[in-house]
Amino acid sequence: MIVTVTLNPALQVEYRTARFLPGSVNEISQVSHLAGGRGLAVAKVLQMFGHEVVAAGLTGGQAGELIRADLARSGVATQFTPIAAESRRVLLVRDLAAGTVTRLREPAPYITTEELGRLAADYRSLLDGAAAVLLSGSLPAGLPAETYASLVSYATEAGVPVLLNAGGSVMRYGAARRPAMVIPDIATDSGAADAAGQLAEATALLAAGVGAVAVPGPAEVLVLTAGQRWRAWLNGPGFGTGSRAGLDALVAGLVPGIALAWSWPDALAHAVAMTAAWPEHGGLDLEAYERLLPEVEIEQLPQAR
Fold first, then answer.
1. Are strands 297-301 and 229-233 parallel, antiparallel or unpaired?
2. Domains of the chain, with CATH numbers?
């Protein structure tokens, strides 16, 4: 069983309109409600590939109920810790004529100390029998930056490997507890946005005891460990991890490799093919994934001196 933990999920409410005119009354042609947050997107894809997965984290109110309902429609089991506040919403207004999307994001709910305590208890109960844990995304209001660090410690003490996908101080606190893999969220950590900065940060994370670090780039993915360096890429257009969807796909692709102890070439081929088959707007294209998988290029690089 793979456990994905999303502490700040969002209900994604999408409005489609023929033309969006700010300051005017706009007629909506279609409304959809989807579970938002990288951990939840990953859970859906893992379920699609036949992995046993449980989506956990924090949800509350009607928005929380709709998040759980969307996951249930995708066949994803859930074990969220309830909170008193309403889960946040992200409103997307899609202008069909212009091809643009306007996003409006609500603030995150405030999490009380009592709710954090219940989350920790619920989380620890899920570790029995878990093959891996994914901790992904931002933290809601009220939670300290060390929250992921505590969750990493609980899992490692139970012998469960952890993939941590976060940025900034949240990532650095969590990385200090030695997860199996860190995938920095460069969207929340501008200091590592350039290639040299990302490699320097990866080196520092390995020195702190992280098992492996994935370094996403616009045309390739690097994985660094204490003793190995791997590079994977796909020739042709359409590949890249610079978008939110691209990073969602990369994280989803790397999780099974850690959970099932795949070789790095197999794990990277799966992750790169998945990234290329996951468009910015829309879900994973399974036919494209199967076509692209044998085309992924993998090479082992010499260790840096």
1. antiparallel
2. 1-133 (3.40.1190.20), 144-305 (3.40.1190.20)
